[in-house]
Amino acid sequence: MKIDLHKPILEKNDALAADLRRRFAEHHVYVVDLLASPGSGKTSTILATIDALRDEFNIAVIEGDIASSVDAEKIKAQGIPAVQINTGGACHLESAMLKRAVDVLDLARLDLIIVENVGNLVCPTDFDLGENAKVMILSVPEGDDKPLKYPGVFQVSDAVILNKVDTMPVFDFDRDAFESAVRDLNPKAPIFPIAATKGQGVEEWASWLAERVREA
Question: CB–CB of 164/202 below 8 Å?
Fold first, then answer.
């Protein structure tokens, strides 16, 4: 007899995620869940996105990390509400964790919540957080073969951000091979090449996101 312990965990997570999704919809809040490896530039991408959209939307950020509040402090320094979730070793966020963070935010005053998931290309793909979209960030130094090694995260993503494109001349990164692999896995997901710390390419990504926030 085989007992699947994963199934009841996901069922409980999904039920709570559905409740969160209803809350977000009631308040017309758009939620994007950012998935990436450590060092890919999640926080710098968030900061660039905030800079591009803050004049139109009220934004909050939920930061997921195994430990520390370094990234949340960077967000708060920009005058943006930020809630830190420390997972204490867990390699992903779950809907119960997100609910506790959402409960301290005033959804009636928000248009957009950006969730920075724990740096991991595997575990977060299985856990619904009630988000409107999952967005994958890959940085050029990580290599063009990541879609082949971690297909699941690219398959569940509504968009893919290729960060640190300004470093492409330094690294052996085959952009055509990368984009071809992504499109084979997920033909519908747009790919946004950016250099977040320099603002390069951010406008196109921000416009894509803004369109969806307006429709929420």
Answer: no
